[in-house]
Write a structure and sequence with these properties.
heterodimer; A: about 800 residues; alpha+beta; Beta-Lactamase; 5 domains; 6-stranded antiparallel beta sheet; 21 helices; 32 strands; about 30% strand; B: about 110 residues; alpha/beta; Transcription Regulator spoIIAA; 6 strands
Chain lengths: ~800, ~110
């Protein structure tokens, strides 16, 4: 029999469902479209409709924070749109922004402290509810609804407007961010292709993946010819071997490469001296290849060579050269700077001569630069240093300065040096890194937060999940299952409001939060409260969640539904929903009260957890959709996979869902006594559970106390290693299998990371324990993971 | 879930005896170490760790022993371990050569007597 909700509950459910749908819809549009005005228009319409008010608007704070710009309206006269008003004339908005929280006025006439604005009075506004958009310090503006009648705004109303405001805030923030990314990419490409510097990039395998226009012009080769394993191809034959040697050495050590060599210059058909500088780049701590620049230093090299021939000839040459040249005496005092130097700095020869080393050098660079110069001078070594020098315009520009000791008749007479302006090159390198970081962050967020396609295997439970994305965008639905220390199993299905990267990231965080609190806390309401506190203290996010704890032995369930549709029990005697424990969505308010309820899943039942995409349909009352779902689910005897396929295949298409659908079907199954198979999150907290399960299994297998202890310890050492390999907490899982094969206990631990060379004695001890306590240990890499298989013969194994 | 371990400290003359009850693994090893270290005042002669009631000790726990031995040695204090005969921990302590860092005794009295 299907139990029906009461009328009042139905109305509440319906209002809640409708608002959730509205908030989710705005979230989806916000992430699917770049058109902020359209999003704001949709949002004010939704606010007015759902809260049944006469007027709604979004007012944007101007940059100086002193005025409000009418960005979107519903119900207001058309000519208001686009107008600008002073922020202090809009008292309610100003207070809501100051307090950084929604403000409700049920009746202006009863609130002497608040006054409607002139426009509002003119329109007969009697009550109002306004909410700030965005976070304090970066407020975008205010979302407000206004009614001509006095109104009592309920906590649900306030939560709804808060959710809408938060969605708008994210959309505005995202637009801002998008512009920034676009700008910085464009700036980089423009810079890379218009500066005379030559640029290149490699991947982590040292293959060239990018060269800029400048490089192609210089070498006269095509992009196709340059990409791939091409390093050093255009170098002078006499320089190539050393270039490659140095490149390989630097690459191997992930060190900076710095080398001067002759590079083929296609326009003149001759070789020119260049300085190659390559630096390793890292993304999220991982080596990602090299980025490099090549600077034409031919004039400087020619200078150095000319000087070797004659001093007078040198000065003539130096003054006509387009680089900055200097010489010193044996004590390092400047004896000459060329025209090029003074053109750059705007100084005079008198200022530059003598002890002028710190002159014009950027304050942040000067100390280290002097240290480096003095050290080189003392050792009479070649000196090279990059620093910022003030140019004649007053702007600091990056230069690379290089000095070589010179000798006459075998004795040291001082240094000759030359500097090259590398300002654009440095800026470009910085920008390239930034662009790369942004791209990588996005990709990583995606990767880390995608839905767990793998559920842990839980003894005595069969779990079948289904996930149907609504469209291109990544959704924020998730499902999860975890085994608690007390032997009960927590089952979770949730739906983050909104779509896209942000929702996916929030989903990942929430999933981990539920995993963490779910292990510690036994009460679902307390788990909800804790996660809620976590969400409210951090980012703007809202989610509906069903959290249920199942006792596999008794079928007892304790659950809480935070704004989430009720789970369905397909019992042998009919279907019913678990309708208790109804609470507010996560992230809606703090403090919030979360309720929990208990129930029983009779033997032979199937439990269906799902997100509202499975039942929600525009214009159809929720209880009708719930009835339809219960009818479609039908008999519980069916194969679980088939049941899920049927629900997904028949119910979903009828709904034409505009939201993602996540479904988790759960059915208690018979316990396997002959072998142990476990999949656990790669977290240290899993070890205690693993020990309990191993103990139970080893005891059943006939191991004595000592054998049991030593085998358990060994498997846990291997598991500890798997946990330490994991990329990050909650990111991965590892599998443990144990079986008794002809009197021999065979246990394996499989992870998805690399069995790294463990540093330090500590890890060495783990391996010693594993090797010492088992008869046979085998460690192999496979499919990007590691499989450790351990065997030990038991003295009195249980007969098979 | 963090592994449960309890530590009770008592004084035997100039030597402190810490009875470790429960399980020590990577989730609580750091905490156990800090507690043990805090229990030893500067004027104590040494510390005896009694593993009679310790049900589980993995490589992270063994690392705690080595670390404590190192730290106490610097303070001129000695660390000794008590493991009863027939304890499942015995072979693990042998394999990891804990005896080289902290002498292993079979009873608390023997350990206190040195």
């Amino acid at each position: 029999m299907l139990r029906r909700p009461s009328h009042r509950q139905r109305d509440e459910l319906r209002a809640l469902a409708s608002r959730q749908a509205a908030a989710a819809e705005i979230g989806r549009r916000a992430l699917a479209s770049d058109d902020l005005d359209a999003i704001l228009r949709d949002a004010v319409e939704a606010a007015g409709r759902e809260l049944r008010t006469d007027y709604a608007s979004v007012l944007e704070l101007t940059r100086d924070g002193r005025s409000l710009h009418v960005r979107a309206t519903a119900g207001f006269p058309d000519d208001m749109l686009g107008g600008v008003m002073r922020a202090d004339a809009e008292e309610l908005s100003r207070i809501a922004l100051d307090r950084d929280e929604p403000l409700a006025i049920g009746d202006f006439s009863a609130e002497p402290d608040f006054e409607p604005s002139a426009v509002q009075r003119e329109l007969g506004v009697t009550s109002a509810l306004v909410a700030p958009i965005g976070v304090r310090g970066r407020h975008f503006g205010v979302l407000g609804v206004y009614a001509r009648e006095p109104r009592r705004y309920e906590p649900d109303d306030i939560n709804f407007i808060r959710a809408l405001a938060s969605t708008i805030g994210l959309a505005a923030e995202r637009n801002r961010h998008k512009d920034r990314v676009r700008d910085s990419e464009a700036r980089f490409r423009e810079l890379a292709d218009t500066t005379p510097a030559l640029m290149w990039m490699t991947d982590p395998d040292a293959h060239v993946t990018f060269v800029n226009e400048g490089w192609l012009r210089f070498t006269g080769r095509t992009l196709d010819e340059e990409l791939g394993d091409t390093f050093g191809l255009s170098a002078h034959p006499d320089d190539r071997a050393e270039l490659l040697t140095r490149w390989r050495r630097a690459f191997r050590r992930r060190e900076e490469l710095r080398f001067e060599y002759r590079l083929m210059h296609a326009p003149t058909g001759s070789y020119r001296w260049v300085l190659e500088v390559g630096t390793p780049r890292f993304a999220g701590g991982e080596f990602a290849g090299y980025v490099g620049t090549t600077t034409d230093i031919h004039e400087r090299r020619s200078m150095e060579e000319a000087l070797r021939e004659s001093e007078a000839g040198f000065r003539d040459l130096a003054d006509s050269a387009p680089v900055m040249i200097w010489t010193t005496d044996t004590r390092g005092l400047v004896t000459f700077v060329n025209e090029g130097w003074m053109r750059f700095t705007g100084t005079t020869l008198a200022e530059e001569l003598g002890s002028s080393w710190a002159l014009g050098v950027h304050p942040d660079d000067v100390e280290q630069m002097l240290d480096s110069w003095n050290a080189s001078l003392e050792a009479r070594e070649v000196w090279e240093y990059e620093y910022r020098l003030m140019s004649h315009t007053g702007e600091y520009r990056w230069i690379v300065d290089r000095g070589v000791p010179r000798y006459e008749g075998g004795s040291f007479v001082g240094y000759v040096g030359a500097a090259v302006d590398i300002h654009e090159r440095i800026l470009m390198q910085q920008q390239l890194r930034e662009v790369y970081e942004i791209e990588h962050t996005i990709a990583e967020t995606l990767q880390r937060s995608l839905l767990p396609e793998r559920l842990p295997e839980i003894e005595g439970l069969r779990l079948v999940p289904r996930y149907l994305p609504a469209g291109e965008a990544i959704g924020g639905d998730w499902y999860d299952a975890l085994e608690r220390m007390d032997g009960r199993v927590a089952l979770i299905v949730g739906d983050v409001v909104g779509h896209g990267l942000r929702a996916a990231a929030t989903m990942g965080q929430l999933r981990n939060a539920f995993r963490a609190y779910g292990l510690v806390e036994s009460s679902p309401a307390e788990v909800m409260a804790r996660v809620n506190r976590l969400v409210m203290s951090g980012e703007d996010a809202m989610a509906t969640v069903l959290y249920l704890v199942l006792d596999r032995e008794t079928g007892e369930v304790t659950y809480s539904a935070a704004g989430h549709p009720p789970p369905l029990v397909l019992a042998p005697d009919g279907a019913h929903f678990l309708e208790g424990g109804r609470s507010m969505p996560i992230g809606a308010a703090d403090p919030a009260v979360f309720r929990e309820a208990t129930g029983v899943v009779p033997p032979g039942s199937t439990l269906l957890l799902y997100t509202d995409g499975l039942v929600e349909r525009r214009g159809v009352p929720l209880e009708d959709s719930l009835d339809a779902l219960a009818e479609a689910a039908g008999e519980a005897e069916e194969d679980l996979e088939k049941l899920c396929d049927r629900l997904v295949g028949t119910v979903v298409p009828k709904l034409q869902p505009s939201d993602d659908v996540a479904l988790l079907a759960v059915r208690p199954s018979a316990v396997n006594a002959d072998a142990l198979r476990l999949s656990l999150p790669a977290e240290p907290e899993s070890l205690a559970l693993l020990r309990r399960r191993l103990e139970r299994f080893l005891h059943a297998a006939g191991a004595d106390e000592l054998e049991s202890y030593e085998i358990m310890l060994t498997v846990c050492e291997a598991a500890g290693n798997a946990i330490e390999h994991a990329y990050g907490p909650g990111d991965a899982s590892f599998d443990v299998e144990a079986a008794l094969v002809a009197g021999e206990l065979v246990a394996s631990v499989r992870d998805r990371g690399q069995w790294r060379d463990r540093r330090g004695e500590h890890r060495g001890r783990g391996i010693k324990i594993i090797m010492g306590l088992m008869d046979d240990v085998n460690i192999e890499s496979q499919n990007g993971g590691t499989l450790v298989t351990m065997r030990r013969r038991l003295a009195h194994a249980r007969a098979a | 879930m963090t592994a449960p371990a309890e530590i009770a400290v008592e004084r035997h003359g100039g030597t402190l005896v810490a009875h470790v009850t429960g399980e020590v693994d990577m989730t609580n090893a750091g905490h156990v170490r800090d507690q043990l270290l805090d229990s030893v005042p500067n004027d104590a002669l040494g510390l005896v760790i009694d593993l009679n009631e310790c049900r589980y000790l993995d490589s992270a726990g063994i690392e705690v022993i080595f670390d404590l031995a190192r730290r106490l040695r610097r303070r001129r204090q000695e660390l000794r371990i008590v493991v009863p005969p027939g304890s499942p921990l015995t072979r693990v302590l042998e394999l990891t050569e804990v005896g080289t860092a902290a002498p292993i005794h079979q009873t608390v009295d023997a350990a206190v007597a040195g």
